Amino acid sequence: MPKPERTAAILVAAGRGLRAGAGGPKQYRTIGGQTVIYRAMQAFSGHPDVFAVQPVVNPDDAALFQEATFGLRHRPPTPGGATRQASVHAGLEALAAEKPEIVLIHDAARPFVTAAVISRAIAAAGRTGAAIPVIPVTDTIKLTGDAGDVEATPERARLRIAQTPQAFRFDVILEAHRRAAREARSDFTDDAALAEWAGLTVATFEGDPANMKLTTPEDFVREEARLASQLGDIRTGTGYDVHAFGEGDHVMICGVRVPHSKGFLAHSDGDVGLHALVDAILGALADGDIGSHFPPSDAKWKGASSDQFLKYAVERVTARGGRIANLEVTMICERPKIGPLRDTMRTRIAEISGVHISRVAVKATTSERLGFTGREEGIAATASATIRLPWTDQGWDDKGRSA
To answer: Where is 64: in which H helix or E strand?
Structure first.
């Protein structure tokens, strides 16, 4: 059958992840500078063939979820159940009014799913009605008894490791879950097992060894190291900005409103600290400067808040699979005094950019009453940004994609 036009995805994120150790539910922990759930959801939210993403979360995690998935396209989350099976059923019922033809069911604890695996899942479900991604077993498997003694050695050539997203015709898997609920069957560990019980033939398609589920603390350590090893292209950029004083009663500096006897003469809000940081990040990316992305001649940026400029620059790094290692800005002015607000500014930059405050530095100096800053005619700022990107000999297009 042709590929269905309406494919939805369910992201199962209601578990507590106790085997992953301390630190809260594993789906809300960070790995590679992003939360696990953000990485898992981003692949579906950005896929052109997925029209809706339905998160299923623990009601106690509402605030965590909102913060961890900020900026991603998804439906309002629905509460999960006591088991994974119950949570999937809740997600299916929440999607029923949208009438999808195909549904992909994915574990939020698998943050490394790729667009290619998602596309294969959609195609396989379109052909067969029920399909799961699998990878071959490379180790010899032993079946043991209660005492731990080996009872059998299954034939390795026929064994496969099941992954997610598992893909089904929506109406069929919904009815299977409803039937299981009616018959009080709540012991299925994945949707393929439930589908088999309901009489469906489940096909397989090529999975991805990197699409692993984070389960233990060791998984986080190993994958953090793997991601870090891939970011071998270390770059540094610098930025500089200056704005003159005019009439006003405050100035914006590093995202913080600072009371002052004057204001900035600027097209946007005149935040010299954030403007310098944006130029530093864009410089590290070799991606133009703030004026080329937000030209002063464009009326829509008049009076604009500069936090959106910094968010944009950070997104350019993320789009290339990179991470920000350090941000540093130095303010050059006689007044206002920066020292008392230093940590407030660091906190604000960290919030805007999504990096830990330990990677943000704000410094200040005067020009010893020399020049325009010494005469208190304006403020200047210098900045530097260190970023890490995946190493490639290729270029990038204007959307951050490998060219």
So the answer is: helix 62-68
219 is in an annotated binding site: no
Cβ(334)–Cβ(368) below 8 Å: no
Residue 387, annotated ligand binder? no
Over residues 366-395, the pLDDT tens digits come to 999 999 999 999 999 999 999 999 887 555
Q: Is 291 annotated as a binding residue?
A: yes
Dihedral of alpha carbons 318, 320, 326, 327, sign: negative
Q: Which fold has domain 231-389?
A: 60s Ribosomal Protein L30; Chain: A; (3.30.1330)
pTM for this prediction: 0.67
Digit-coded pLDDT (tens) for 243-267: 999 999 999 999 999 999 898 998 8
Please indicate if the annotation marks 293 as binding a ligand.
Answer: no
Q: Is 297 marked as binding a ligand?
A: no
The domain segmentation of the chain, as residue ranges, is 7-229, 231-389
- Torsion angle (degrees, nearest 10) of CA 118, 192, 15, 90: 90
Q: Is 267 labelled as part of a ligand binding site?
A: yes
d(CA 15, CA 82): 9
**For the chain, the helix, strand and coil percentages under 3-state DSSP, each to the nearest 5:** 35, 25, 40
Q: How confident is the model at residue 119 (pLDDT cuts 50, 70, 90)?
A: very high
Question: What beta strand segments (E) does 198-339 contain?
Answer: 203-206, 233-246, 250-253, 256-259, 263-265, 323-332
| CATH entry, 7-229, from 3.40.50.720, 3.30.450.40, 3.90.550.10, 3.40.710.10 | 3.90.550.10
Which residue's entry shows tokens 């990677």? 359
Rg, the chain, Cα only: 26
Does 250 belong to an annotated binding site?
no
